[in-house]
Amino acid sequence: MKTWIKNSLAAALIATGALGTTAALAWGGGQCMGDGPRGGKAGWSQMAPEQMKARMTERAELHMARLELALALTAEQKPAFVTFKNDMKVRAERMASQMAERRATEPPKTAIERMQRMEEMSKLRQVELAEARKSVETFYASLSDAQKTVFDAEFEKMGRKGERGMKGGMHGGPRDGSGMGPGRG
């Protein structure tokens, strides 16, 4: 591996660690303080819609900044990244709005209603995923092989539990009927 790539990756890892530490401190230090998750701050289910949208936007911007730093983009690649970043921002805003709308509606009362809601959400997720995949494919094609490896690793982190990605951000707390397990709906 070329020295500049190694140096770029090392700098990206250091910056990522610093960003992660800053984010952890901003969330209130976790449960170590004895006053609940994130220092007693409200979870997703207790946030006002505008607060939820702001947090989701902030988190998406942090992921994109981390990704841009890790990829060490060339001048020719930056326009493709800006397009990709804007697509992801629009998607995140749309998801936040949908979550707020869902929270504002009456929760399902029966198993059938919950299943109908899950089915609707599944269809919506499929459309969102297809749109996101197209955007990722377009940007991914502009990357070098080394950058693709970095992108793959960063993309995996975004979804890993504990990384404040989709999985990590969606577990725990009351549900809105979008799942079948206990305490959902």
UniProtKB/TrEMBL annotation:
InterPro entries: LTXXQ. Pfam families: LTXXQ. Keywords: Signal. Residues 160-185 are annotated as: Disordered. Residues 1-26 form the signal peptide. Residues 167-185 have a biased composition (Gly residues). Transmembrane segments: none annotated. This is Spy/CpxP family protein refolding chaperone. It comes from Thauera mechernichensis. The lineage of its organism: Bacteria, Pseudomonadati, Pseudomonadota, Betaproteobacteria, Rhodocyclales.
